[in-house]
Amino acid sequence: MPKGYWIVGVTVSDEARYPAYREAAQAAYDKFGAKFLVRGGRGETKEGSVRDRVVVVEFADYETALACYDSPEYAAARAIRQSASAADFAIIEGHDA
């Protein structure tokens, strides 16, 4: 079964408030087995445009990735993130090779 992924580009507008999002989201990450493959870090855009921070989160499957995003645990965190940043957020089903 293919894994599910969050692919997120983030531009933080309130650096002081953004850590509260990460703290609030932890319960959802724990509940749904989120595994961070990319969480910021060094990068170089070769084509097009990419936000300041890129995050890739892996889940057991696509349905779990959707469920985490739609969960009450993540809803509270999402409100904080949306007040402290702008994001491009996609939920994608991986390739089952």
Question: What would you say about this model in short?
Answer:
The protein is of the alpha+beta class. It has helices at residues 18-32, 62-70, 72-84; strands spanning 4-12, 35-39, 53-59, 85-93.
Explain the layout of strands and helices:
Layout: E1 4-12, H1 18-32, E2 35-39, E3 53-59, H2 62-70, H3 72-84, E4 85-93
Helix pairs in contact: 1-2, 1-3
Helical/strand content category: alpha+beta
Low-pLDDT stretches are none
Radius of gyration equals 13 Å
Oligomer: single chain
Mean pLDDT: 95
Order of helices and strands: EHEEHHE
Number of helices: 3
Shape: globular
Strand content: 25-35%
Secondary structure: number of strands: 4
Portion in helices: 25-40%
* Ends apart, CA distance between termini: 9 Å
Which strand order spans the largest sheet, edge to edge or round the barrel? 2-3-1-4
Largest sheet: 4 strands, antiparallel
Describe the structure.
- The protein has helices at 18-32, 62-70, 72-84, and strands at 4-12, 35-39, 53-59, 85-93.
- The chain starts with a strand and ends with a strand.
- It has 97 residues and is an alpha+beta fold.
- Strands 2-3-1-4 form a four-stranded antiparallel beta sheet.
- It contains three helices and four strands.
- The longest helix is centred in the N-terminal third of the chain and has 15 residues, at 18-32.
- Helix 1 (18-32) packs across helix 2 and helix 1 (18-32) packs antiparallel against helix 3 (72-84).
